[in-house]
């Protein structure tokens, strides 16, 4: 995951890869026995704290937004609900690309 650089007010950041990372954490070093592995994963999941719960909620909301906007890869930044800039994690650079697109100078 690449952190978003140059954060600003009014910007919502979704870390949609958090669900995949949780799955990796839950399945790390599980026992070979399927029932024991199930119990271990369940125990790990039950120890989930509020921070992790909020991270997963953020990821789920981000996935919903991504589906609504038709985003098919990330990182992606959506501007005004009508343009998506892919592959840039610096908000200033993405905003500049968006403004160039608005001016007819570039693709979003």
Which helices and strands, and how do they pair?
Layout: H1 18-27, H2 34-46, H3 50-69, E1 76-79, E2 83-86, H4 91-102
Antiparallel strand pairs: 1-2
Describe it for me?
A hairpin with a 3-residue loop joins strand 1 (76-79) and strand 2 (83-86). It is elongated and about 60 Å long. It is mostly helical. The protein has 4 helices and 2 strands. It has helices at residues 18-27, 34-46, 50-69, 91-102; strands at 76-79, 83-86.
Sum this structure up briefly:
The chain is 51% helix and 7% strand. The protein is mostly helical. It starts with 17 loop residues before the first helix and ends in a 6-residue tail after the last helix.
- How far is it from the N-terminal to the C-terminal residue, by CA? 22 Å
Strand order of the largest sheet: 1-2
Beta-strand percentage range: 5-15%
Helix content range: 40-55%
Tell me, what's the shape?
A: elongated
Order of helices and strands: HHHEEH
Number of domains: 1
Rg calc? 18 Å
Biggest beta sheet attributes: 2 strands, antiparallel
Mean pLDDT: 84
Low-pLDDT sequence parts: none
Total beta strand runs = 2
Q: What structural class do you assign from the helix and strand content?
A: mainly alpha
Q: What count of helical segments does DSSP give? A: 4
Notable features of this structure?
108 residues, mainly alpha, two-stranded antiparallel ribbon, 4 helices, 2 strands
